[in-house]
Amino acid sequence: MASVQNTTAAFFLHGNARQYDYVLKLYPQVLKMKAEEKKKPDELIRLDEWYQNELPKKIKQRGRDAHLIHEELVQCMKWKQSRGKYYPQLSYLIKVNTPRAVVMETKKAFRKLPNLEQAITALSNLKGVGTTMASALLAAATPELAPFMADEVLKAIPDVEGIDYTTREYLNFVTHIESTRNRLNSENGGEEWTAHSIELAVWTHSIAADMKPELLQDMPDVEKLKNNVIGGTNGTTHTHPADSITATTEQSDESNAEPEPEAATEQKETKQRTANGKGAVDSLDESTLSDQDSLNPNTPIIANDETNDSDSHSSAKRSLDSEEHPETGEPELKKAKSSE
Q1: What SS3 class is residue 229?
Q2: Is 129 in contact with 70 (CB distance < 8 Å)?
Q3: pTM as predicted
Q4: Are 8 and 223 in contact (CB under 8 A)?
Q5: Which of 32, 70, 125, 215 is the most exposed place for a label (fewest CB within 10 A)?
Q6: What pLDDT does residue 260 have?
Q7: Which three-class secondary structure state does DSSP give residue 164?
Q8: What is the distance between the alpha carbons of residues 147 and 172, in angstroms, rounded to a whole number?
Q9: Rounded to a whole number, what is the largest CA-CA distance in the chain?
């Protein structure tokens, strides 16, 4: 039997415009299924509605001065973690950015577009923003060019042999998405498909194939697609590099450890912070910090070397991003002078 990754890889590579359209229309239903696995299902649905529909409009309305404000950056992180894996340190780090820095760096990044590499470099000056988070911000700002770097979609790309969340890997990811986008738009004779809508369709297919495969049974030309999953005359399935991903030698945003369950993380954080004479962070509501440990936006946070994002090894200007080590808890705080 073909794995979910092989099935979705076949859809990504060989699916036609009618099939993509069918799967994309399943997104609300599949998202609801995903949300029901969460502790707060309504929150994910609300955040996704905001991220997919409201935020892009707000950014576009700002015209040449397109940017994000601090509240929107924090909300994007909540969406990213609600739909994917939960990393408590990121909720903590993202709020440390000053409102001024958020506006300045996001404005700088959006002005770099359509150069995605330069835009990611600018966004990475913000604390808590690595390649994956940067891709989420860019997908909201320019959905026609930038897909969100979702694990489920990465694993559907045959050329991806390991997930290391680097800028180089993201740009390779974008190249494959763009190829599929061009293929589908040539079928339709228009520009209906964007990089982000391709990514959403592939994500939807992956989750549906895993959680409720029968949703895909009525997809147009489904038998033709199955023939692309089963290869050769011996009836064996294609193998996919992502089926046997090994640890990379380069440290990454999110690949080195499993996220902690939300309840366990909250209990662990409470114990750690109480031992330091501080109040607990409510990890289930990332927008709120206790009064005893409220972070002044002007107070920088300095993490240990282990929390550095993979890209920071090659650039001292890159911000700290602890996505790669979710098990380490909140970054160590050191005394520092207040920044502007």
Answers
A1: helix
A2: no
A3: 0.70
A4: no
A5: 32
A6: 44
A7: coil
A8: 12
A9: 68
